[in-house]
Amino acid sequence: MRKWKGRLIALGVTLAVLVPLAYLWATSLVPNDYSAMDMGYADYGGGPSSGHQHHGGQHQNGKGVADLTGPRTGKPDVAVTLVAKKQKFTLASGESMDGFTLNGSSPGPLIRAKQGQLVEVTLVNESVPDGATLHWHGIDVPNGEDGVAGVTQDAVPVGGKHVYRFLADDVGTYWYHSHQVSSEEVRGGLFGTIVIDGADDDVIAAIHTYDGKRTINGRTGSQRVEVAAGKKVRVRVINTDNTIVRTGLVGAQYKVIAVDGRELHGPTPVTAAFPLAAGARVDLEAVVPASGALRLDAGTVSMEIGSGTASAEPLPSATVDLLSYGTRAPLGLDPAKADRRFEYRIGRRPGFLDGVPGLWWTINGHKFPDVPMYMVAEGDVVVMKISNSSGQAHPMHLHGHHAVVLSRNGVAATGTPWWIDTLEVGDKETYEIAFLADNPGIWMDHCHNLPHASEGLMTHLAYEGVSTPYQIGGKHGNEPE
Ligand code: C2O
Ligand code: CU
């Protein structure tokens, strides 16, 4: 009977579609609680594996994240308490917001320390329902102070507190932010700035978009910083948003003197825009013109620096390219003698992530949480090739380390050593970077367009022999992204 045969074929076709789909759905489910150490599969990058059970198990003679802390004793030189709240608050420019504050404001307080000082920050969670942490973005602190919920600590619940202690060894411009449900908490304002060894009269400019309103230091529109004509200023620009910002000084030539907390070598004066990746920082230096003022342009917001009238000129269309900016200097490591070579290939494909159908990011062809765990040993020189064919740009951020850019799309870097902690990798771009594995721990390596990280564009760099007692999920509800 033809009708039956037709129905059987239809049923067969349906099953042939549904069974694999059900399988894909079921295998995409992320367990409710799991250890970062159990995530995905170990990638040794051509280096040795210890042969011990270092991945996904307890390590007998290894170290725990909790052992890798800053100094536990000693009187801090800089002691700050930051109280986190979920609340309605008012921006410095007057608009009312619903989000998150530290000590009643967003951005939270600027923390300043001199090089070598002991910094102690006590985070108190007064009312952030999902819990909170503080991550010291770009400061290569010991792993136990890194502030990643479920990896280096438990999220601080309402009514709880957590003390971070670290030495301010890394001079430069940084910021701090919650690394618990970070895609919501950072956007909502749970962040602040931290400068190590800056001068008191440096200008700080933290760019953040609250509910569609771009701000600098919490102010929309145009704001002024009074600086005498003829004075040289250092402007520390911090991009706390999820996407790249074209910024730069208008009204005089400027130099790009530091990026991600690292001084550049042989910077030359430019009139151009600087592409500042999400999470990244840039220090610009210029002399306030005798008549007029400098203008820091950040798209819909600006800061006038000086006492005269600032130029209304838009940012030039030219862009500073650090691949060839400044002059060469020794890197302090030899990438040709790398102990490990990794690939971090970013792609995108349809499928399920934790049971939800969609177009999801992939790392080396794998969807979260089945992603590579990059395994290193202390002292390794590591080369990583990051390539992107996902259709979108990704500001890639490695915790706990600074890496130097070796090449872009096969073209070798010829300018200043270009050290980064956050690197914009555009669609169809390939970067080779190198770093020294000198900070043992389990370190996130993720996209700083934070919604992308929560959609699976995140993995870890892990040192052999280091384990974490913390769990993602679990009774603390740890959810780093
Ligand atoms: Cu600024 Cu993992 O973050
Ligand atoms: Cu991304």
Report the structural category: mainly beta
Write the CATH fold name of the domain at 33-68 and 329-476: Immunoglobulin-like
> Could you name the CATH homologous superfamily of the domain at 33-68 and 329-476?
Cupredoxins -  blue copper proteins
Mean pLDDT: 94
Low-pLDDT segments, ≥5 res? 52-60
Shape category: globular
Report Rg: 24 Å
> Percentage of helical residues?
under 10%
Oligomer kind: single chain
The tally of helices reads 3
Number of E strands: 36
CATH class of the domain at 33-68 and 329-476: Mainly Beta
Give the percentage of residues in beta strands. Answer: 35-45%
Q: Which architecture of the domain at 33-68 and 329-476 per CATH?
A: Sandwich
Major sheet summary line: 7 strands, mixed
Distinct bound molecules: CU-O-CU linkage, copper (II) ion
Head-to-tail CA distance between termini: 57 Å
Give a quick rundown of the structure:
The protein is mainly β.
Please describe what this structure looks like.
This protein has 481 residues and is mainly beta. Among the domains are: 1-30; 33-68 and 329-476, Immunoglobulin-like. 7% of the residues lie in helices and 41% in strands. The protein contains three helices and 36 strands. The chain has helices at 2-28, 182-185, 450-454, and strands at residues 33-34, 41-43, 63-64, 78-90, 96-102, 111-113, 118-125, 135-137, 161-167, 172-177, 191-196, 203-210, 213-216, 222-225, 232-239, 245-250, 255-259, 262-263, 274-276, 281-287, 293-298, 301-306, 340-353, 356-363, 372-376, 381-388, 394-398, 403-408, 411-412, 419-420, 422-425, 430-436, 442-447, 458-463, 466-467, 472-473. The strands form eight sheets. Strands 23, 24, 26, 28, 29, 30 and 32 form a seven-stranded mixed β-sheet that branches. A six-stranded mixed β-sheet has the order 2-25-34-33-27-31. The protein has a six-stranded mixed β-sheet with strand order 13-12-15-20-17-18, with no helix packed on it. A hairpin with a 2-residue loop joins strand 12 and strand 13 (213-216). Mean pLDDT is 94; it is low at 52-60. The structure holds CU-O-CU linkage and copper (II) ion. Copper (II) ion (CU) binds at residues 394, 447, 449, 452, 457.
